[in-house]
Amino acid sequence: MVNFDQFAYACRRLRTAVLWISLVCISHAACAWGNQGHQVIALLAEAQLSPVARKEVNRLLALEPGETLASISTWADEHRSPATAAWHYVNFPRGACSYEFKRDCPDGKCIVAAIEKQLEILATEISDEKKLAALKYVVHLIGDIHQPLHAGHGDDRGGNTYQLQAFMRGSNLHAFWDTGMLKSLDQDNESVVRGLLIRPLPQSARTLFNPATTAEESCMIVGKPDFYPERIVTPAYMEAYTPVMLYQLALAGSRLAQSLNGIFR
Length: 265
Prior knowledge:
By secondary structure, the protein is mainly α. The protein has helices spanning 5-11, 34-47, 51-61, 69-72, 75-78, 101-104, 111-124, 128-145, 173-184, 189-197, 211-222, 235-263, and strands at residues 163-166, 169-172.
């Protein structure tokens, strides 16, 4: 289980920035983390790329002039199909956060297997067009797997059917984690990225990225006793989990960069 204590301490000053504003509700089928979350993760990764990786990423992005890591970060949601829908999450049984391929990833259709496959394509494929498509998936899915409810439970569709009120409006837990907490900070992408880059991740988080282990980490966050709030989200919940949300964004950006640096070297 990731230790959030150091990061939470660094984030406490953000409490006063939390504004109770309207929540834009989206479904699990729309976009995870919301556009801003994915863009923040991509910008964090971009800032941590090695020179060699940056050059190769830019070469692939040049196949579609004008695209950036941030702009492609939502591509996988925008082009989701019945064939790829299951690539965006993995469901764990309640009380069990140990990943088992046969149980949790039937026919290889889950986010863990999808990330592994797309990383393999990115590392070995000859066709630049296919490598660019794999890059789009990798940027997005590594973000998804760090949103805790993308490694949640099937019985409530990753929190989609857990109804609640947040910011004076009806919503569900998944939408609240996708967009609500980050939106409540009322900061643009660059401000969020700057704030996260000046708070280095603890050494314990700087382990080699492993999709299965990351899914287990996310599942354990969902399994915390207070993760499911009362039906009305309170300031106390925001105070407890805004640092966790920011930590997950920072971790996703770091691990995305780590993965690309490892492939392009």
